[in-house]
Design a protein that fits this description.
The complex is a heterodimer. By secondary structure, chain A is mostly beta strands. Helices cover 0% and strands 54% of the residues of chain A. The chains are: A mainly beta, B mainly beta. Chains A and B meet through strand 6, strand 10 and strand 11 of A and strand 5 and strand 10 of B.
């Protein structure tokens, strides 16, 4: 079955340290991969995407993600975390069917940055 | 506003009642999506429109759920005979084109509204 998984419910990082939020996927064909962020009482906001090209994708707010085809992963990273990065992060993948496609989301990872 | 607008932001209803949730997408976006998000979970796909037609409704949980987009812009998600298990935040998103590139250039990025929180008592 086509799916996306976020193995960590919560990630805790000290401000200024690097952060990684993990994502793995299983899809047919070439993957379209996305990261979204959700702040409290707000809608989901797009951070970045991988469709083709360089494996390291840069996005909003200093975030980047690395596509690894052999490990079927698309981990979100940031070199130096900020307290304001604390939020809920969702990995998403496009899945293809015979006549349509849709985006499915992982269960989310709560990122907590302590001062 | 320039973003996706959803109304109402909050809806409390009693079990068995009928509910309508409205989504006004970004002007010019041909694709529109409905998701449902329960507490502590990721958004769950419900239905996807390309223009006026439902391109994929495989996520609608049962026949109590129905959605329309008669003029290819505003969409309404309709829930009949609501149950307590329907309580969730219903998210709407739009994009310039379909995910498969149908209807024009597709960036794959979805623009989300802030959601309609439905509580069924």
């Amino acid at each position: 079955a086509q799916s996306v998984a976020q193995p960590e419910d919560q990630v805790n990082v000290a401000e200024g340290n690097p952060l990684t939020v993990k994502c793995t996927y299983s899809v047919s064909g070439n993957p379209y991969l996305f990261w979204y962020v959700q702040y409290p009482n707000r809608g989901l906001q797009f951070l970045l995407k991988y469709i083709t090209g360089d494996n390291l994708v840069k996005g909003s707010y200093g975030f980047e993600a690395e596509f690894n085809k052999s490990q079927t992963s698309f981990h979100l990273k940031k070199p130096s975390a900020l307290v304001s990065d604390s939020a809920l992060y969702f990995c998403a993948v496009r899945v293809l069917y015979s006549s349509a496609s849709k985006i499915i989301f992982g269960s989310g990872t709560r990122l907590s940055i302590r001062p | 506003g320039a973003g996706v607008s959803q109304t109402p932001s909050n809806k409390v209803t009693e079990k068995g009642k009928y509910v309508e949730l409205r989504c006004d997408p970004i002007s010019g976006h041909t694709a529109l999506y409905w998701y449902r998000q329960s507490l502590g979970q990721g958004p769950e796909f419900l239905i996807y429109f390309q223009g006026t037609g439902a391109a994929d409704d495989s996520g609608l949980p049962n026949d109590r759920f129905f959605a329309v987009r008669p003029e290819g812009s505003v969409s309404t998600l309709k829930i009949q005979r609501t149950e307590r298990g329907d309580s969730a935040v219903y998210l709407c998103a739009s994009s310039p084109g379909g995910l498969a590139g149908i209807g024009g250039k597709s960036t794959g990025e979805l623009f989300f509204g802030e959601g309609s929180r439905l509580t069924v008592l």
